[in-house]
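User: Predict the structure for this protein chain, please.
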Amino acid sequence: MAQCLLRFRHIFVTRVRGYVVHRVQSRFLIFFMALAMCGLAAPAVADDVGGDDTGVPAVRRSSDAPSASAPPEPDPVQVADVGGDDETGAPRTRRQRSTGSDCKWFPDIRCGRHGRFEGFEMPISQPFLFEDPFITTGIYPYYVWHEFPTDSALGGGDAHILAVQARVAITDRLAFIATKDGYAWYNPDNPLLRDETGWYNIAAGLKYALIQRPEDNFILSTALKMEFPTGSKSVFEGAGSSVLFIPQISAAWGWNKLHLIGDVGGMAGTDSDIHSSQFFFHAYADYTVHKHFQPWIQFSGQHIIGSGAGERPVRLAGGGEIDMATAIAALGLDGFEGVDVQNYGNPDVGGNFISVFAVGTHIPINQHFTLSVGWEMPITSRQDIHEQRVTTAVRMEF
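Assistant: Here is the predicted structure, written as structure tokens:
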């Protein structure tokens, strides 16, 4: 099986590398623009996408307007008590339960709202960077196996990572997101380096839905995350006092059983010697073959805009430590970065670009619980520290 995957990788990379390097960034921008335009062009609420302060759209669709002969439907906001039936004796709908005044704060926990549109799943490849646009509440455990290239500074070997993400919908449109943490086991094959374990930095922030149109399967959100140097230096985290800012915008649109999600973003630190500055993007698609089988593919890319100074410490097998810039020069290597997982801030990386292809499947158990697995590999000649990766995740949402 491993030989087949390596053979597939060699053929795939050899034949598409030139095309990808020159065209993947422009093609992704076309994908993201088309994704947004599909959602915006779909039949939707006229004039006002934001709604009033109760969360109910200010303008109805013309096709939803009551006829002259039919009595008007009761407005969900007029139902004061979200715990029982309305004055007509009819059971309340989910919309009525989730838009009452008592459900303005923490609607998923207090009122049974579910912020992920029906049929959509959460992308799991590059989870520390890729943030989907849905405003949800849940816990998301991850296990990642990552292999290092033999011609990298780490000389081959692998890493194992355990992490847990958390998200809380504060309102229907605003969510707190904790997207990076975890514990890592690094096992490089370079004899100058020793096996290490340690904690990753913590990253968290806020996400806000700019446009929500569940009736059209379209949502557009923006997010701002901050990564703090709380991790262990043994696994190349926690260096200095620089805080990494990660702004991004994401969109999702679905048609029938097809679901598309994409985002664009960047990262920059408060200390440019510690962190490099980067632009990144993700383009994801899945298709519901069966209610318990939802295969997906994803293309991701990172373009390094500005280099750092390579001041992050590297501990040596024989004792002592040196900074990354010195280690790179001593080994005669080109500058490299930590792809989507870490920002090393190494020198001579400005202008570098790496693109990654991923494939996998979701196994939805129900609306709130999904098991997912994916495999990914670089499809550009540049790999940095990325040979291949297997990611497994569990989605547990309210």
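Confidence is low (pLDDT under 50) at residues 11-22, 44-99.
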